[in-house]
């Protein structure tokens, strides 16, 4: 059976311990035959109060363009689109990262579209939360509650963890109440899964189930190493392959949200690919780890730093880079203006370059923000124009003829190079707008009415 990726949160394989208001170690013996037993209970007593349940409710709004034939029969005053509303409820988890300010981190997909967000603490108290900001590309959201006597969780350096390290996951699976599971870190730097736009996951043999999303992945000292996010779920349940967003990545995003109210993503200004065996052999390298630079954008941060096409980026601030996807995720979660040091290989020689990241210009958008007939598509500014990253089947965007991978390079007779220019041009069009689309090596026009 083909594995299915599901946006639900993590917990770890092993004996599952459900925590309520009783002490976590209530059923565990202290010693057997005078021999002290190892137990996670002391650590959990300090850590579990920092993990909360997140209950959301809201209304999903879907828009669908009314076919021309219906407007013909019902006259010029007939609505151009049909709007449907459907109430929803959901459950997830969250982690208190600042007790004084009441900051709670969870997944964006847990609170996406919610009108009401209710936080449940381990001691039974409940508070309505305010959404401070979120980032859909990395699936992080920051909430805030006004409460006293909160417990926060301290973070470890998630770049310093290793495969084989023990890990403990805490969350709220299926709304059962706080649940703890244990296991190990089974892989690092997982990407290319198609779960998020920016992927650099910690993989764990966590028992991940619905409702654990946004919960804590901690080490044996009770320090946060990741935010549990997704699983491979062939039958809809846990099979022992779970993914968590690294704590360092989360904190970088949260710091931007706190400072700016949004993520101001840093940009290096390169396009590239993974370093495979053929490329490594061609460049005389023993290792296949690194990010190969295909192109450097003019006047970009990479160009200013002297990076060239053909360079191989092998480290970021002294940490090894395994793949181009890992580099993309780490750069993409650093803020604009961040200063980094890249280790590169050029002509077989190692060197380092210092780079000040540029600022992305409104890189992504839901297309229905731009035009009703683009609903169901997700757009991103790239070096070639505005790329169609996703198209929902049967959506107005699909019916308009757009496909994943299309690149919008113009509106009517005006060229556009990013989302900002596309938005401006579509606003100026009172009637039909013809999108100039690059598909493969051919150009075509798609008309929006």
TrEMBL record:
Protein localization: Periplasm
Which Gene3D superfamilies does its entry note?
2.30.42.10, 2.40.10.120
Is Protease among this UniProt entry's keywords? yes
Q: Report the SMART domains cross-referenced here.
A: PDZ (SM00228)
- Domain of life (superkingdom): Bacteria
Q: Where is the signal peptide?
A: 1-26
**What are the alphabetically sorted keywords of the record?**
Hydrolase, Periplasm, Protease, Repeat, Serine protease, Signal
Extract the InterPro entries matched here. Answer: PDZ, PDZ_6, PDZ_sf, Pept_S1C_Do, Peptidase_S1_PA, Peptidase_S1C
Which Pfam families does this one have?
PDZ_2, PDZ_6, Trypsin_2
Q: Where is the PDZ domain?
A: 257-348, 354-441
Query: What family is it from?
Result: Belongs to the peptidase S1C family.
The protein's name:
DegQ family serine endoprotease
């Amino acid at each position: 059976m083909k594995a299915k990726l599901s946006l639900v949160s993590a917990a770890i394989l092993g004996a599952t311990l459900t925590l309520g208001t009783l002490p976590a170690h209530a059923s565990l013996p202290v010693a057997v035959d005078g021999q002290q037993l190892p137990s996670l209970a002391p650590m959990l007593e300090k850590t579990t109060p920092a993990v909360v349940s997140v209950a959301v409710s809201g209304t999903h709004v879907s828009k669908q363009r009314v076919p021309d034939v219906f407007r013909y029969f019902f006259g010029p005053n007939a609505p151009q689109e049909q709007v449907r509303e459907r109430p929803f409820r959901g459950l997830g988890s969250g982690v208190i990262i600042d007790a004084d300010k009441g900051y709670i981190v969870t997944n964006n997909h847990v609170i996406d579209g919610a009108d009401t967000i209710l936080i449940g603490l381990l001691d039974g108290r409940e508070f309505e939360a305010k959404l401070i900001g979120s980032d859909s590309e990395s699936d992080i959201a920051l909430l805030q509650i006004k409460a006293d006597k909160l417990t926060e969780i301290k973070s470890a350096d998630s770049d310093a963890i290793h495969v084989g390290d023990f890990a403990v996951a805490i969350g709220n699976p299926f709304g059962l109440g706080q649940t703890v599971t244990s296991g190990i870190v089974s892989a690092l730097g997982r990407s290319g899964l198609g779960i998020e736009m920016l992927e650099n996951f910690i993989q764990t043999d966590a028992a991940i189930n619905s409702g654990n999303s946004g919960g804590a992945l901690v080490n044996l000292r009770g320090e946060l190493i990741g935010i549990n996010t997704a699983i491979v779920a062939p039958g809809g349940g846990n099979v022992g392959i779970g993914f968590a967003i690294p704590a360092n990545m989360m904190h970088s995003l949260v710091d931007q949200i706190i400072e700016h109210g949004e993520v101001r993503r840093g940009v290096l200004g390169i396009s590239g690919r993974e370093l495979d065996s053929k490329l490594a052999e061609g460049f005389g390298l023993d290792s296949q780890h690194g990010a190969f630079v295909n192109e450097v954008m003019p006047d970009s941060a990479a160009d200013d730093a002297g990076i060239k096409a053909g360079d191989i980026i092998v480290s970021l601030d002294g940490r090894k880079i395994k793949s181009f996807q890992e580099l993309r995720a780490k750069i993409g979660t650093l803020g604009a203006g961040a200063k980094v040091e890249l280790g590169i290989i050029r002509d077989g020689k190692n060197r380092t370059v210092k780079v000040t990241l540029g600022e992305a210009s409104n890189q992504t958008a839901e297309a229905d923000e731009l035009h009703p007939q683009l609903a169901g598509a997700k757009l991103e500014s790239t070096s070639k124009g505005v790329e169609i990253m996703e198209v929902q089947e049967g959506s107005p965007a699909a019916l308009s003829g757009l496909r994943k991978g299309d690149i919008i390079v113009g509106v009517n007779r005006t060229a556009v190079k990013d989302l900002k220019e596309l938005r401006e041009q579509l606003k100026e069009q009172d009637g039909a707008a013809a999108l100039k689309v690059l598909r493969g090596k051919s150009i075509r026009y798609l008309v929006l009415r």
